[in-house]
Amino acid sequence: MNKKRNRIIRITSIVALVVLFVAVLAVFSVQSEDEGAQFSPGENTDVMEFDPYIENESRLDNSLLEYGKVLNKYASSDYADYTGEPIVLEGTSYASVSGGEVSAFTEDYYDEDSDSRIEAVPSAVVTTGTTTTLVYKFKVSETALYSLQLEYFMPKSKATEALVSFTVNEKKPFLEASAIELGRLYEQYEVGKNDDAGNEIKAKQRETFAWQTYSVNHAEGLYRNPYKFLLQASDKEQTIEITFSRQAVVLKSLSFIAPMNNPTYEEYKKSIDAPEYTGQALERIEIEDSIAVKNDMGITMAWDENYCSSPSSYGLINYNIFGGERWSEGGQSITFKTCEVPEDGWYQIAFRYQSPVSDIAAYREIKIDGQIPFKEMEEYCFPASDSWIGEPLKDENQNPYLFYLTKGTHEITMAVKIGPLRHEILALNESIDYISELIKKVVQVTGSSRNSDGSYDVDKNRDWDLQLYIPNIKSEVETCRDTLYDAYNNICQLNGNTIPYYASSVKVAADLFQKLADNTEKVPASLNDINTDISSISDSVTNMKKQGLTLDYAVIDSKDAAYDYATSNFWQNMYVSGVRFVRSFTTDYASIGVVGEEELESLPEIKVYASFGREQFEMLRNLVTEDFTPKNNVKVDLTMVAGAEGLIMLRYVAGTAPDASLTFGVGSVIEYAMRGALYPLDTLEGFDAYLDEETSPFHPQNFVPTQY
């Protein structure tokens, strides 16, 4: 009987294990049908609602209102967009200048590092890095809404953006008019270079220089389209006052132009009579290798060890992806070149992409050859995903968009946008301000004291008749509750009905205000909870603005092209893990990045320890082999050592210490110096220049902790 029972138990256990194994395979091998499914964000407009907490906010002066609310005023007054020819003002046609000095751009600008040359344009004006204000006069023949366009470039300087503000007829047209940024351009070079072990070396970056045409927009990509502002027709001359600060700028022209008015996709399709492409599949566009220009040095290539990432990087290192969390700030843009398009026609454009943070949709403005083809590309949503997705750009019915491309190569520009979340960001910011004011009122009534850590001391055993002192407190709490619940629901909807991590704090705050609305006498005892929720909502607003997107490759192909193998399955993941495990026993991580090792054998050598991460170590190795060694004829044996500082003294005693360490705590200098383990720098020729305030690249006080 026992044998039979044991046999049944064994068989049952084996069957259970098999079922469990099959279930695990199903989970890891099958991608959710909802992964990458496009959805409709609903109405997506730049027109913002007025603050529900402020009575008659619409009566405030435009200079005190956010652009979206000013746009609301324009809409209610039925102002039309300007449709005529641009009103162009040349850079040197200013009526007056104040602040810094200016001059005409009469000599060619040449940058040797990037081999960039910009020919002189005498009608362009050159400002200095100091605050400079230029006033231009012009006439307007039509009352309408205009956009402002600048054509400029920035000479090499501190690699930061220039700040710009402007007024029209001595008045700010909206609040954000004093916070405009002009960006720089950067490029990659020496792409695809490998070290002696076969690992790819990350491409170098440098600033490049060219004229940029910029339609003035929100610096953080908050709004869908460039700014519009009202100009009234008049026989009198009008003025625009534009102020540059922080960086020198060469301004070629500024123009009042017709605002952006792109066709819908259906209108775009009807406007071009051309056949769909049905030829052979086109080559894959490896985006990390195809970047033509970007506006932020922080957006870089990286490597991904997923089996399906192209080219593979689970063996030797290959930089095969681009973007990620570093490409998440509003306004950051990249431009990459496409493959050769064989003929004129309609093509489908697809991407293999991934959200660097789970369940977060990302919005991007997409241009082809500098132009947005149709409205749906003004803020295209890449749906949230937990894994890699290979999908064409498509509508909410999952139908791929088709793009008309002419024969030859093209450039695709993608810029980070906030998307329709802008409305929820504004609502939450207004709620934070209003709740803070509500707390002040309650504190005044209850006399609650505030501690150094920001918390409140509240007498929880005392009852307060708050409605006697704050008659509208119930309606105020209900308004906060409703606004927070609406924001939470909209955030989830705009994320494809997937709850993003930053939405939880909004839901928690809404639930709290629901309880307080039921009994306002709980408000004083809940001050600390309310205060905590304010901080959490503020963090959520910051995180809502970060919409990272990682790109692997792009595909331009026919309408019916298939994009398979974007997501690796369980067996492929197991294979990658096995390869990585085996290689961990054979890879010499200390030699990563070494180029031309045989040619360096005859040079003198120094040994250096560094406790950096793998990517930092590789970048340092690149600097050594490509810059330090050629200039100084000294070979560097750079070794990646965990906890280098703790090993140096032991190796010094044993006579095997390195010549230098790059991760050495300042607090240990005296301890090592008194044992004679450090070389005195002041015995080196020319070191005195580093102690001189006028000649030293460092602050002289930095050397104080290292003196013995």
Describe this protein with a few key phrases.
708 residues; 7-stranded antiparallel sheet; globular
Please describe what this structure looks like.
The protein has 708 residues and is α+β, with helices and mostly antiparallel strands. The protein contains 13 helices and 33 strands. The strands form eight sheets. Strands 1, 3, 6, 8, 13, 14 and 16 form a seven-stranded antiparallel sheet that branches. Helix 8 (504-518) packs antiparallel against helix 9. The longest helix is centred in the first third of the chain and has 28 residues, at 2-29.
Shape: globular
Q: Report the C-alpha radius of gyration, rounded.
A: 31 Å
Overall pLDDT, averaged?
A: 88
SS content category: alpha+beta
Helix share, percent:
25-40%
SS elements, strand count: 33
Continuous helix count: 13
The main pleated sheet reads as: 7 strands, antiparallel
Q: Low-confidence segments, ≥5 residues, pLDDT <50?
A: 24-31
- Name the beta content range: 15-25%
Through-space gap between termini: 85 Å
Task: List strands and helices in order, with pairings.
Layout: H1 2-29, H2 67-76, E1 87-90, E2 96-99, E3 102-105, E4 109-111, E5 116-118, E6 121-127, E7 132-140, E8 144-153, E9 162-168, E10 180-182, E11 185-189, E12 204-208, E13 212-215, E14 229-231, E15 234-245, E16 250-257, H3 265-271, E17 285-286, H4 287-290, E18 291-294, E19 301-302, E20 321-324, E21 333-337, E22 345-354, E23 362-368, E24 380-382, E25 389-392, E26 402-405, E27 411-417, H5 422-446, E28 449-450, E29 456-457, H6 466-469, H7 473-493, H8 504-518, H9 527-544, E30 549-557, H10 570-583, E31 605-610, H11 614-632, E32 635-640, H12 644-654, E33 660-661, H13 669-673
Parallel strand pairs: 31-32, 31-33
Antiparallel strand pairs: 1-16, 2-7, 3-6, 4-5, 6-16, 7-15, 8-13, 8-14, 8-16, 9-10, 9-15, 11-12, 17-30, 18-21, 19-20, 20-30, 21-27, 22-25, 22-26, 22-30, 23-24, 23-27, 28-29
Helix pairs in contact: 5-7, 5-9, 7-8, 8-9
